[in-house]
Amino acid sequence: MLNQPLQLVPEYRDYVWGGNRLRPGIVPTAEAWVVYESNLIADGLFAGQTLGQLAAEKGQALLGTRPYAKTGTRFPLLVKLLDCAQWLSLQVHPDDEQAVALEGPGQFGKTEAWHVIEAAPNATLIAGMKSGTTPEILQTAIRSGTIIEHAQFLNVRTGDTIFMPAGTIHALGPGLLIYEVQQTSDWTYRVYDWGRPETPTRRLHIEKSLAVSRPEASSSALPLPALSDGQPALLCDSPYFRLETVYAHTQPVVFDTQGESFHAITILEGTAHLVTSGGAVTLGRFETALVPAACGTYHLEPVTPYRALRTGVL
């Protein structure tokens, strides 16, 4: 029976803009992919299988009725941690329909959300275009490399959440440590790369960017809501995923998948004990576990005071 929490082995990606907070001493480490279909299960009955293999084998028992109805046995989400020491490229992602048209059958678009784990003083990011940017202005700016003149810069702080629908041009700036949840897609069309030289693995995608960019699209930063001990708080909701945070100092928090969706739990601060009817796992900072939909009720108990993020197709 699929009733135990699944601890996943992170996959790391090293890019030019990465920092040293995800794997101290190994620089640069740009991204940790903590929930993805290619992640290996660390231990237990399913150790050595990938999350994607288990989803194909167990279907609704792992995924839940909601994601299974939308995407079948394909695991629907990708969760990353990003450590930004430099500006990331200005980029844009397709929606589901555009992904199929541009990349082929079975491809998904990429709507995502960012939660700011840490932000340096005066940290900024780009979240869409300035008001009044027309399709003609956008096309000229992308082709001429002057897109930054029309970008909407946002100052952000620790705890902020930014929802980023497909088609919104965006970039993360230096000094940010980010939790990112998104559709299970990594189709990224690079619009502008701050003068870095193009390489075979780091090219601009001008035509595809023009095909999917929405000049009117922009996003705002939502501050962290007031948190009470043991009470989950909503950060963002969409047709693709829901993101919540919970702080617990003394009280164990009880959740219930109700068979509707898996829950992915990532600890941002402190240590927690995740207990289901079939097992338990202790999670420290930046560690993630997946609770299968079949688990039903489970507990997230404080070992030390913790703050966690919970996501799924909720």
Structure summary, number of beta strands? 21
The topology string of helices and strands comes to EEEHHHEEHEEHEEEEEHEEEEEEEEE
What CATH calls the topology of the largest domain is: Jelly Rolls
Share of helical residues: 10-25%
Major pleated sheet: 6 strands, antiparallel
Question: Which consecutive residue ranges, at least 5 long each, have pLDDT under 50?
Answer: none
Distance between the amino and carboxyl termini:
22 Å
| Computed CA radius of gyration, to the nearest angstrom | 19 Å
Structure, described:
Helices cover 14% and strands 35% of the residues. The mean pLDDT is 97. It folds into two domains: 6-212, Jelly Rolls, CATH 2.60.120.10; 233-312, Jelly Rolls, CATH 2.60.120.10. β17 (272-276) and β18 (279-283) form a beta hairpin. The chain has 314 residues and is α+β, with helices and mostly antiparallel strands. The protein has a six-stranded antiparallel sheet, with no helix packed on it. The protein has a six-stranded antiparallel sheet with strand order 2-3-4-11-6-9, with no helix packed on it. The radius of gyration is 19 Å and the shape is globular.
What is the compact description of this entry?
The chain has 314 residues and is an alpha+beta fold. 14% of the residues lie in helices and 35% in strands. The longest helix has 10 residues, at 135-144.
List keywords for this structure.
314 residues, alpha+beta, Jelly Rolls, 2 domains, 6-stranded antiparallel beta sheet, 35% strand, globular
Blueprint (SSEs and pairs):
Elements: E1 6-7, E2 11-13, E3 31-35, H1 51-58, H2 60-63, H3 65-71, E4 77-84, E5 90-92, H4 96-103, E6 112-119, E7 124-129, H5 135-144, E8 151-155, E9 161-164, E10 170-172, E11 176-183, E12 189-192, H6 206-212, E13 233-237, E14 242-248, E15 253-256, E16 263-269, E17 272-276, E18 279-283, E19 288-291, E20 297-302, E21 306-312
Antiparallel strand pairs: 1-19, 2-3, 3-4, 4-11, 5-12, 6-9, 6-11, 7-8, 7-10, 13-14, 14-21, 15-20, 16-19, 16-21, 17-18, 17-20
